[in-house]
């Protein structure tokens, strides 16, 4: 148990503002927070789940892991060393992670350097430049995943062709799943200032086949631009050795370290996770990465061709359950 002094109002605001800028499936922001002295609980908000698209809660726990990582980065910037546990309270399964902060000193090397990227990062759904990522940057992204206990598999051209086929199957399944379409309509399109994905963040409609997820597929979204997407995208699959709720949270920690590291190198990232939302198709992706690790996220990474709007976030005070 941490013996550090209680957090100030300013500190709590900085920490939770960072946390809510984590990515989550359909930007549902499925987190709540509880602050007890220098201890912060990251809790699952059961009112923001996606039972049709994410029945096991895998994607939701990845999002909570990403929020926990942002908390640790913000704490490091403030001068707090941190430790954490996953699912610390069997009597309260809604507590997904618990973060313990030390006494405040100087900025913590490593994590604190990523703080400036938290609000700059957003999911980019536009075309990428046809340009290779330098090996030193690829190495940094790979190392970021490994630092949190995950693996980043970079797909070669043959694997990407196989992935494209799986993505087409997933997109077709989505279009014929009324439960998913109804659920997605609650979060996608229109004007959404605080959560969900508004029209302004959907990105352009591809003018030719492309490895990009169109979240508005099946809905009418008038006024969207059209664009030709890159023919040879850079694709990486984030995987974990284990497959359980702990591993999903770990995947979220790794995902966010990768995303912030990518942002620091002026890279943009979008997700192709529809291929992981159906067990049979996820099994095919598992084979693509060697058949041993469990694929948790599929990342399309590159240099963006244009500026693009991000998605809104709930005010941090609206996510705070208790502070004592």
UniProtKB/TrEMBL annotation:
SUPFAM superfamilies: FMN-dependent nitroreductase-like. NCBIfam families: Rv3131_FMN_oxido. This is Nitroreductase family protein. It comes from Kribbella orskensis.
């Amino acid at each position: 148990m941490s013996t550090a002094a209680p957090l100030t109002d300013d500190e709590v605001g900085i920490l939770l503002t960072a946390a809510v800028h984590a990515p989550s499936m359909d930007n549902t922001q499925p987190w709540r927070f509880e602050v007890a002295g220098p201890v912060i609980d990251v809790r699952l908000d059961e009112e923001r789940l996606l039972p049709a698209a994410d029945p096991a809660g895998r994607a939701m726990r990845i999002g909570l892991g990403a929020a926990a990582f942002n908390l640790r980065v913000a704490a490091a910037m403030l001068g707090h060393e941190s430790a954490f546990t996953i699912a610390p309270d069997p009597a309260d399964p809604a507590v997904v992670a618990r973060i313990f902060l030390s006494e405040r000193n100087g900025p913590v090397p490593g994590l604190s350097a990523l703080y400036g990227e938290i609000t700059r990062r957003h999911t980019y759904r536009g075309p990428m430049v046809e340009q290779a990522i330098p090996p030193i940057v690829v190495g940094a992204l790979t190392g970021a995943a490994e630092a949190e206990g995950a693996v980043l598999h970079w797909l070669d051209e043959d694997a990407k062709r196989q992935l494209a086929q799986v993505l087409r199957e997933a997109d077709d399944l989505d279009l014929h799943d009324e439960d998913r379409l109804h659920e997605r309509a609650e979060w996608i399109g229109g004007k959404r200032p605080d959560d969900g994905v508004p029209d302004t963040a959907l990105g352009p409609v591809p003018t030719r086949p492309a490895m990009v997820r169109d979240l508005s597929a099946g809905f009418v979204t008038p006024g969207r631009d059209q664009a030709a997407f890159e023919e040879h995208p850079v694709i990486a699959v984030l995987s974990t050795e284990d497959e359980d709720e702990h591993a999903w949270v770990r995947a979220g920690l790794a995902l966010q370290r990768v995303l912030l590291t990518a942002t620091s190198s002026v890279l943009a990232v979008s997700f192709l996770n529809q291929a992981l939302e159906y067990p049979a198709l996820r099994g095919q992706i598992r084979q693509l990465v060697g058949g041993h690790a469990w694929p948790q996220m599929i990342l399309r990474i590159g240099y963006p061709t244009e500026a693009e709007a991000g998605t809104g976030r709930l005010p941090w005070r609206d996510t705070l359950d208790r502070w004592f």
